[in-house]
Amino acid sequence: MNLRLSQDARPQAVTLLAATAISLVLWFIPFLWFLYYPFELFVTFIHEGGHALAAVLTGGSVEYMWVATDTQGLTVSRTSGGALSQMFVSSAGYLGAMVYGALLLVLIRKAVAARIVLLVSGLYIFAITMIFGFIKPLWSFNGLSGIPFTLVAGLVISAALILIAKFASAKVASFFMSFLAVQCVLNALFNLKDLLSLSSPFHSQLVHTDAVNMARITGIPAIFWAGFWIILALGILWFVMRLYVAGRDKTFQPDLPFEDVPSV
Description:
The chain is 68% helix and 5% strand. It is mainly alpha-helical. It has one domain. Strands 1-2 form a two-stranded antiparallel ribbon. Helix 3 (83-91) runs antiparallel to helix 8 (210-218), helix 5 runs antiparallel to helix 6 (147-167) and helix 5 packs across helix 7. The radius of gyration is 19 Å and the shape is globular.
């Protein structure tokens, strides 16, 4: 397989490498955690939103969605289907975050305007916050204690994305879009690694996770599902990176973040 980086992908690859390097610095230097914190919350919203949307798509309903101060999340839903529907909902969290990050990478490579992507992402966070984090718990009168932080965090993140989309330069918006893609991909992989550890039969205590849900539904141990999701996530990333390094049609002129944008 030829994974040689095409000439027209190199400026975008530089952007992604820079975003990845900054992410790792923020991740592993303890006193910089507050800079990384909003992005972890963003990925939690994507993760929990994946569960919620999967429940709705399979004909079920969502009682409430929480995002907590420690960046953990919880989505309580009811499925109207059988085991397959429940498996789809349980799998839609970690894999949903990876798919979202992969989609951003594809849109970056296709040179879709970063402002549009950030605007849509902001509106998406706003929608799932209001519907699943505010209206649904009020309607079901369940999970009310999670409303305050979920609502504040969701509104702040969605407002920030919309403001960046509206007022930031094309280069800043493109870099920020790359940064969000990296967050989704890295968080999905690191969280799946943690899930694999938590799913080990030698772990000191049982922790309720998506993999435990899958084990309850199927009777197959949680560690299998954690490993299976890791393989799927890596497969998604491999496929997307294959698309990313490939050359584009020469007649297509991208709007690259590190190139001068021609005046209109």
